[in-house]
Amino acid sequence: LRLAHKWDQAGLPPDAAIGWATVKAAAARGVWEVGAAMLNDLESAGVPLTPHHFECVLRACDRKARWQEALALLGRMQAASLRPTSAALECALRACSKADQQEMVEAVWEVLRAEVANPSAPLRPPMRTYNTLMRALSGGIGPKRVDGARRRGAEQVLLAFDEAVRLRLTLDETAYKHALRACDLLGEWRRALDLLDESRAAGAPADVLSYGNAMSACARNGRVGNVLQLLDKMRADGLQPNAFCYNSALIACTRASRLPQALSILREMEIEGGVEPTTHSYAALLRACSGAGDWRTAVQLLRRMERLELKAEAVHYGLAINACSRGGEDGKIMSLLREMQGMGLHPDVATFTTALSVCAANNQLPRALSLIERMYSLEVAPDVATYNVLLQ
To answer: pTM here?
Structure first.
């Protein structure tokens, strides 16, 4: 790059060799401005540009997440009747994904589809290209996305996976991981189980995360038996289930209203698996207690979290309070509410409404009005159920 700069300072015209060396160096250093300027100089000097020149500059854009410049380069290639390579499209996908430009990822995907469908000379991308595409699309299913956007992102990942299958690309471990994560989010447990079997048959055995995603997909549908079978399969494959896997089993038990089995899995998790339960583990258990109205177990779980120095959050107390309500233990509700407020935790509208129902049952209007004032001070908006209880 220094020599190219000297060449330019000396007023010497660019030639093909100098230009090619410069764009390659620009790609390696991520200096997209230098690469783009060299493309302009070569074009002005009448040196024919190739797709590989553009690919180098796109690599530089990829390194710096310059998605706008990457898309402009693709447009410039199209205007010059130059077809992008698979590697060039991968660079554009990564640049858009790094900049969190999901709509632009889809735009590049359309370019890829058009190149693959080109009737005269269809592009034959490697599996790496579709793995890059699925990873870029996976940016749309991150935890910061709203649920609707996450579902759409997951659906697109599976569409890309199916495209790779139709193109008869050799699916690898990475491809199956992306697809299994999408199945997890969508709750497509049957397809997740099929993908696990396919990956084993293809010589791409699943790892702990892949098993965890399949278990989570089953758990979303309360498929306790399938989750437990996957735990056994993991051990048979020499894999040690982690907290994510055990939590999926707990969630499945909760969805299937199997509190005793959930408590048994917790013991197995600690004793046999040697895995420490997480706050998510206890949230799943407390949700099962809430559904069963088992307030004693719920309170015991809260105390156990204290002993393990796991910090209970508002959701844990809310579930315990709901368990007390369903179990007819009104006396515990107000004490748990005071306890969580003493810890600086803010009850949600459902927890406040449960506490108000205790006031209604005991004809404690002043206390109910005090709770309503507390709700407004915390900016917790009452809902219809709240007002119905208050009117009582």
So the answer is: 0.83
